[in-house]
Amino acid sequence: MATMKVSPPPPGPSRRESPDPTPKIPSEIPLEIAESARARRRGLLGRTGVTGALLLSPASSVHTVRMRFAIDVAYLDKKLRVLSVRTMRPGRVGLPRPRARHVIESEAGAMARWGVRRGARIVVSAAGRGTE
Predict the structure, then answer these.
(1) For residues 125 and 5, is the Cβ–Cβ distance under 8 A?
(2) What is the rounded distance in angstroms from the CA atom of residue 116 to the CA atom of residue 4?
(3) Please, what is the Cα angle at 12 between 10 and 18, to 5 degrees?
(4) Is 118 exposed, middle or buried (0-12, 13-18, 19+ CB in 10 A)?
């Protein structure tokens, strides 16, 4: 089992977001990695929930057809920077995102709690060693 950490996006003058209180970001979030085509196709199908998150790599889109719960989806570029975050209800098909190379799925609401938003960087650690 791998873990992930969230590095918040750098502050910038062009950001239009209101300064909200910093979310309580867990130091490490449990992360399951779906690297095979079969694991990516299955994703979270058939589950009633997920502890932590699931990283689909490589991937640029997801669907929630036959899913049992709503999910948060973060689209990442090749450097693991968050391009966008969406919440998808069951029965939806997401369009492929340009420049997206990886996708993280979690239960709806988890990404906001973890501070995952556009511009943030995800750091993945596997078996006690850090990788980016």
Answers:
(1) yes
(2) 11
(3) 100
(4) middle
pLDDT in tens, 54-110: 999 999 999 999 999 999 999 999 999 999 999 999 999 999 999 999 999 999 999
Residue with tokens 């420049």: 99
Q: What pLDDT digit, counting tens, does each position of 15-31 carry? A: 555 555 555 666 789 99
Q: What is the pTM of this model?
A: 0.82
Three-state SS sequence of the chain: CEEEEEECCCCCCCCCCCCCCCCCCCCCEEEEEECCHHHHHHCCCCCCCCCCEEEECCCCCCECCCCCCCEEEEEECCCCEEEEEEEECCCCECCCCCCCCEEEEEECCHHHHHCCCCCCEEEEEECCEEEC
What are the C-alpha distances in Å from 108 to residues 18, 54, 69, 88, 104? 22, 13, 8, 8, 12
58: preceding bond cis by omega (within 30 degrees):
yes
